[in-house]
Specification:
- This protein has 295 residues and is mainly β.
- It has one domain (10-293): Jelly Rolls (Sandwich), CATH 2.60.120.
- Helix content is 7%, strand content 28%.
- It is built from 2 helices and 16 strands.
- The protein has helices at 10-22, 286-293, and strands at 86-90, 109-111, 114-117, 122-126, 131-134, 146-154, 168-174, 178-185, 194-200, 204-206, 216-222, 226-231, 234-235, 239-240, 253-255, 272-280.
- Strands 1, 3, 4, 6, 11, 12, 13, 14 and 16 form a 9-stranded antiparallel beta sheet that branches. The chain has a 7-stranded antiparallel beta sheet with strand order 2-5-15-7-8-9-10, with no helix packed on it.
- A hairpin with a 3-residue loop joins β7 and β8.
């Protein structure tokens, strides 16, 4: 992920963003354009519900024991209306990528994202050519505190060779601002590397290793002073970081891959699924994270 230096003038940054949004049809943030194989409404292609997913995504009836019915709690209980701290809420429960925060931003592009069985009801299935992109908006440019959380299911490991930027899988990335990835990591005392979630927000914090072909809850909590990754509700080691979060980048926000300016060839894509993704403008408490992980 390339870090960009924010503008020294907030007014200039706002003016640039306004101009960019006015010309959205020509915007190529993260390499996406308005044209392409979308389903028209920016949601998951409903025609794919009865078709077997490809590219290693979780099948409709797997993993065993997962309830493939529509999320019973994907509405107001999971996406509480009127909560000003909830910026993005994607339960994927109705087979679409709709943001359930009514006044919040909606995906500008959804390509090759298919409904699959989720950790709770339905989820979004991603393959090597999938793209889910939110166009640049100040609504997703959050200073600390903030929380990113959701369930991930991966069927293909990150690459084992190359630089650290190659050896990872993109989950949520607002380029140069905040992100969650899966990467190879050798924890203190471990004999070898394992696939482990980590967050980049002016610092890098790691969680605990997770396994393939199973749903795991991952959360990144930035309090303004520390950055902590929670894996399945359990906190990792906090990392001190008091540097303000940049808010001047222009690439938008991607799910299921790295936001690096070239969506035509997805960079470090997720092959698997995402479910119950939420972005908050507050630091969620350990109890709240553990409750979400237990859903």
């Amino acid at each position: 992920m390339m870090l960009r230096t924010p503008s020294s003038s907030a007014g200039l940054a706002d003016a640039v963003k306004a101009a960019a949004l006015a010309g959205l049809a020509a915007l190529a943030g993260c390499g996406f354009t308005p044209s392409g194989a979308t389903d028209g409404d920016g949601g998951i292609d409903a025609a794919a519900v009865d078709a077997p997913p490809s590219d290693g995504r979780p099948p409709i009836d797997a993993p065993p024991g997962v309830d493939a019915r529509t999320d019973a709690s994907g509405g107001s209980a999971f996406c509480p209306p009127g909560d000003p701290s909830l910026v993005l809420c994607l339960p994927f429960d109705d087979g679409t990528t709709t943001n359930r925060v009514g006044s919040g931003p909606q995906p500008f592009l959804s390509t090759n994202v298919t409904p699959v069985a989720g950790r709770v009801g339905m989820a979004a299935g991603f393959g090597a050519t999938s793209a889910l992109w939110f166009a640049e908006t100040t609504a997703l440019d959050l200073p600390a505190p903030l929380t990113i959380e959701g369930f991930v299911y991966y069927t293909t490991d990150p690459p084992m060779t190359g630089t650290s930027s190659d050896r990872r899988i993109g989950l949520v990335d607002n380029n140069g601002q905040y992100s969650i990835f899966l990467g190879w990591h050798q924890a203190a005392g471990a004999m070898s590397e394992s696939v482990t979630p980590y967050c980049n927000i002016n610092a890098t914090a790691w969680g605990a290793p997770i396994s393939r072909n199973a749903w795991h809850h991952v959360a990144c909590v930035h309090t303004g002073a520390t950055l902590t990754v929670f894996t399945d509700g359990i906190a990792g080691v906090p990392v001190n970081t008091a540097t303000p979060i940049a808010t001047g980048t222009m690439d938008g926000t991607t799910l299921g891959q790295n936001c690096d300016g070239d969506a035509a060839t997805p960079s470090v894509p997720l092959v698997g699924g995402l479910d119950e993704v939420r972005l908050w403008s507050v630091a969620r408490t350990p109890v709240e994270i553990a409750t979400a992980a237990a859903r």
